[in-house]
């Protein structure tokens, strides 16, 4: 018996293996190739989301009106071009009363990501996984190129908003494609590994920044790799699960047969088996819940509020402190590379941690670690140790990011699971929208910037105590199970 056959007969998750997983296996050549394609999406996601570090780095100037450095008001600045030859701050004089605009352009980018996640998420449910993904890829490529040439700030900011929408679209659709194709016992590992290309893209960003010191050429350089994603027109298909849900069974069977052949699995009577499976899921189809169902009963309400607060916090800290690292003393390229490197390490370490530690335990521990190092950062002068503290803050917040995806999936029943993840993801975008303005505090008050970042993870550590542990539980189905879960009377069977 080969590994694929073992996987389909002995799933670790304790869940019944459905006909699709039996037919294509849990993880083989087909899933590996699909993961490889979808992982490519995360490189430009990282390039564009973290680009603000090099689009608007800390920029010193001398005011020629009075020969004072970084003074305000200043109508005639002369910028220090020893590190960067041109930034959006230099290009559009985003200093003094206009300083807030450099943070605002990143906030609008994150707003675009929020809207894109919602719009493309709904589109992927209605029109399939492939077409919305392709639309997001094309939008990202076109708008990325346009952003390199627009001559005016507000046009640049609007184009960045559209890039953000495309980023939200590629993230949500690619993740769904992977989760619908991989066997349940591999999902926690793959959901963590899915973040590694993002971390790697973050690590590559200072390489682009080091060799390309002008913001417009830098924007062009991080967009060009998107051309590779145009291959998705030929290489990506809709997922069999979506096609079956839409009663397009014949198309699903063709894709399943192809996947089974790639994974060296039998293809006899697949059409008949899939037809029986479709009738079964139609027979037992549950009515989907809504976001309102998450707030109607006290236990679910408590869980969604605590979980969404964790999402908001880790996004706020990760994106904010990652950008703040570029404002600290020392070499900006080394600082950002160090921050990205430890984040890769944190992502890889989160996989065995999720095997041996409880989800809630990880959230509590790493939220408190994040808060602790940021409080220490507030009293340190700029230098190597401040960079170390900031890097620890970044990696601990990203570990929380990895874990909340899985914890949220396990915590809420099937009928409201997508609603819970969608609402939590929206809250995460709110955190990332606020973060740039906290980074801006660093110029006037580094102490308050670090302390402001520390407050939310400190609160999140205590809030996480309210969450029930989900490690090793069977996934719940109904609202009643979700409401009863975690109460003193245990209604969920442990594995």
Number of helices: 23
Which overall shape is indicated by the principal axes computed on the Cα atoms?
A: globular
Main sheet attributes: strand count, strand direction, barrel closure:
3 strands, antiparallel
The helicity comes to over 70%
Strand order of the largest sheet: 2-1-3
Low-confidence stretches: 1-16, 489-495
Secondary structure class reads mainly alpha
Q: State which percent range the strand residues make up.
A: under 5%
Written as H for each helix and E for each strand, in order along the chain, the element string is: HHHHEEEHHHHHHHHHHHHHHHHHHH
- The radius of gyration computed from the alpha-carbon positions, rounded to a whole number of angstroms, is 24 Å
Count the strands?
Answer: 3
Distance between the ends: 26 Å
Tell me what you see in this structure.
This protein is mainly alpha-helical and 495 residues long. It contains 23 helices and three strands. The chain has helices at 3-9, 19-24, 29-50, 52-55, 88-92, 100-127, 130-147, 153-179, 187-193, 196-211, 215-223, 232-235, 240-245, 249-262, 270-283, 293-296, 298-325, 332-356, 359-379, 384-411, 414-444, 446-464, 479-484, and strands spanning 61-63, 68-69, 77-79. Strands 2-1-3 form a three-stranded antiparallel β-sheet, with no helix packed on it. β1 (61-63) and β2 (68-69) form a beta hairpin. The two termini are 26 Å apart.
